[in-house]
Amino acid sequence: MNFDKRLNYNMIIFYIICVVICFDCKDVVWYNFNKMKYSIDKKEAVIYRNNKYYLRIRSYNTDNPVVLFLHGGCGSPDRAQVMKYQSPLAKDFTLVAWDQRGAGLAYDKKEAKNLVLTKEIYIEDAHNVVLYLKERFNKNKIIIVGHSFGSVLGIWLAEKYPEDIQAYVGVGQCVDYIRNEELSYSWVYDKAKKLNDKKSLKVLDKIGCPQNGRYAQNHQKSIMQQRAILHKYGGATFTNRKPYWQELLFHELPILLREYNLLQIFKYIKGLSYSPNQPLAQTNPDFINSVKQLQIPVYFLLGHHDYNCPVELAEEWYNKLDAPDKKLIWFVNSAHSPQWEEPDKWNSEFLKLFEDNEKI
Q: What domains, with CATH codes, occur in the chain?
């Protein structure tokens, strides 16, 4: 490692330590304030049906409808973002975020050596969390919000267990991994050509267009390179975007440190490399052909500029999908995560969906 790399590494470690110290001090006031503010505001590890589930729960009133947020990745828990941006909804809902198996607090290095993560394991884990929440809060059904990969898991769950789900809300809705990667790559390539961005074109030419949803050489590294360019052009985050590394260090990390201590952050990072390399991540949902009908209300709240999960695929599927009730709501100043890019509008639209008590 040369001097410059050592210096950059040491600066990053120093930055993390400074942020941890600041948040340790800040959290004393922040936590006590919320303790008075909410009727429940807890981080919990619960055992249900012989499995451990790591939950984050917040509500003003636990009689309210329960909303379970399914995070993306796979392997990227979003409890910190949910608590930061969706907390205004805690007045009308009980908010629950869950670190999925192999991710965040649920990452276990011994389990990671032996367990192969599959679609079936994740569906049953999600269903167990739903059943636990129904029992704990005395509900007949709960609302599911799926973001990115969580939108795939949410549809799988709704398809298999509709009797337990009041409604499904998709954000950054994934539909078909194969077409997803082809469209996303083509979009950034066209952008790079129009802007004469030679540096990005060189990277894109080197990794090549994905075939059957995967890059030919080192898929995970290649997809991260493509996503960094996508981010630069506004196809992942549309407003207030900064260079990828700056956003991770100076925006995402401080948010994460609201919910995870430093040791847990390293655990979180381990999970980021574990889950995406499992068969689960390669199971193409192909919802346009595989899911033509759902027995529950379906609502899509989509960022207009999303090319992480290209919105034309979600719109195509939405137009073909048969459901008891469905709505598609656009967010014109957002890309993949409108719930965080336009949180006030997103929270307002979400609340409107469930203002009618008969829907809850």
A: 38-176+262-359 (3.40.50.1820), 177-241 (no CATH)
